[in-house]
């Protein structure tokens, strides 16, 4: 038998073997024309399917030449700017309306929207004692893991959990869209109470309120919030609801759906993808980076000092030493991310209400200076601009949303897009997604055990 010390020694030794043996030289990817990350040098993704749910434009063809353009995002054929402006002008909450659009392919009229909103409100309920028996058991600081565990456990309460007919999957999707805020916020309160010694508040949602309003109601001890706060959170949810079929978590949704598995397993897999810092967890990295910047940069109005810090980031001399300026650049967009452009105006409005204009000005300075610094320090193949993650974490901090809930808020929105893509996959495809890998291993002669 071995002890813990011997176990750890074995693991370290075998880890070293993996690090030495498993590496594939980068030249092999060019040799076999394999796209790393399923993207080419210009960030163009390998086409893996067709979708009618959304569309992203980052370039246009002019006189036969592909040139970068200002980023555009469409939900079911509607420009995201038009959708947001329509909601803002009428001072409405838009999450439910846009969710209807993504799921069913058309904008609802007043009666359809009321019926859909009432359906979501009716579905905002969890099985008896679920919060006590599941959410409050073994609380974790990782809310995404808590969410995934809760959703997988919900399958045990569903007599038709494995039924993948479209009507049943839609029923499950509507239920999960409705209860995701409850699972996330309750999970946070359990962690905050049992692990931090804070007070625990388990408020019931209000069927008559919007999703954004209910999130703030569930989160806050007094259940109070301002209209500006709720509208900005609603906007954040709309901008995060969907982003093409090629983003990591949505592609995961398509891949896992294609295997024929159940809705709960698909959503849990998508959550596992979204929690990564290169995907949905990026906004937390932005906030942490900004906290480090505030400590290192003495004069927030000194652009030379800010630039010097940004260069230190790229040289792996600051923050997490990863060589990244978080919130800058995007896998698809080059000149601009339309979600960030839309967000910025409302961020300023909230900053004024919260007395955080000094922070807003600092974010604005970095948004302007970072592309310049990156262009001087790195060889880039396309433009660099702020992405939606750059401002979303700042917004959530102004809404007093704890860091642990930043990525779950993303999931609360994105589950709508996942649901639309899952249904699209079920309707149009009957073939498991199975890409190919080129093997670059060497064949070996087998030796008996006593001759090795």
TrEMBL record:
It catalyses: oxaloacetate + acetyl-CoA + H2O = citrate + CoA + H(+). SUPFAM superfamilies: Citrate synthase. Pfam families: Citrate_synt. Pathway: Carbohydrate metabolism; tricarboxylic acid cycle. The keyword Protein transport does not apply. The keyword Transferase applies. Keywords: Transferase. InterPro entries: Citrate_synth-like_lrg_a-sub (IPR016142), Citrate_synth-like_sm_a-sub (IPR016143), Citrate_synthase (IPR002020), Citrate_synthase_bac-typ (IPR024176), Citrate_synthase_sf (IPR036969). Belongs to the citrate synthase family. This is Citrate synthase. It comes from Lacrimispora defluvii.
């Amino acid at each position: 038998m071995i002890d813990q010390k011997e176990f750890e020694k074995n693991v370290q030794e075998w880890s070293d073997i993996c690090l030495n043996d498993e590496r594939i030289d980068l030249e092999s990817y060019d040799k076999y024309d394999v796209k790393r990350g399923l993207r080419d040098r210009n960030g163009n993704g390998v086409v893996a399917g067709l979708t009618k749910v959304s569309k992203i434009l980052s370039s246009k063809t002019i006189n036969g030449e592909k040139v970068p353009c200002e980023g555009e995002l469409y939900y079911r054929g509607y420009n995201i700017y038009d959708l947001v402006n329509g909601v803002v002008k009428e001072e409405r909450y838009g999450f439910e309306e846009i969710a209807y659009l993504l799921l069913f392919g058309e904008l609802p009229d007043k009666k359809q929207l009321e019926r859909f909103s009432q359906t979501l409100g009716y579905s905002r309920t969890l099985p008896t004692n679920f919060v006590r028996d599941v959410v409050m058991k073994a609380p974790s600081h990782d809310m995404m893991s808590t969410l995934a565990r809760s959703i997988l456990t919900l399958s045990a309460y569903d007599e038709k959990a494995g039924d993948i007919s479209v009507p049943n999957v839609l029923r499950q999707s509507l239920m999960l869209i409705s209860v995701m805020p409850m699972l996330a916020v309750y999970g946070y309160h359990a962690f905050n109470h049992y692990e931090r010694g804070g007070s625990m508040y388990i408020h019931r949602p209000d069927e008559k309120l919007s999703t954004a309003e209910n999130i703030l109601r569930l989160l806050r001890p007094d259940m109070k919030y301002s209209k500006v706060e709720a509208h900005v959170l609603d906007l954040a949810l709309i901008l995060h609801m969907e982003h093409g079929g090629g983003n990591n978590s949505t592609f995961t949704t398509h891949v896992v759906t294609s295997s024929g598995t159940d809705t709960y397993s698909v959503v849990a897999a998508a959550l596992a993808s979204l929690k990564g810092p290169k995907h949905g967890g990026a906004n937390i990295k932005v906030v942490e980076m900004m906290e480090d910047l505030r400590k290192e940069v003495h004069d927030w109005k000194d652009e030379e000092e800010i630039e010097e810090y940004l260069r230190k980031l790229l040289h792996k001399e600051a923050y997490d030493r990863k060589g990244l300026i978080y919130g800058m650049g995007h896998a698809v967009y080059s000149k601009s991310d339309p979600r960030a452009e839309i967000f910025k105006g409302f961020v300023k409005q909230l900053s004024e209400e919260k007395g955080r204009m000094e922070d807003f000005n600092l974010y604005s300075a970095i948004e302007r200076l970072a592309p310049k610094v990156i262009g001087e320090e790195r060889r880039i193949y396309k433009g660099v601009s702020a992405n939606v993650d750059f401002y979303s974490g700042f917004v959530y901090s102004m809404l007093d949303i704890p860091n642990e809930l930043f990525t779950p808020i993303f999931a609360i929105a994105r589950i709508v897009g996942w649901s639309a893509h899952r249904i699209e996959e079920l309707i149009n495809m009957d073939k498991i997604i199975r890409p190919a890998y080129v093997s670059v291993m060497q064949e070996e002669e087998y030796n008996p055990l006593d001759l090795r």
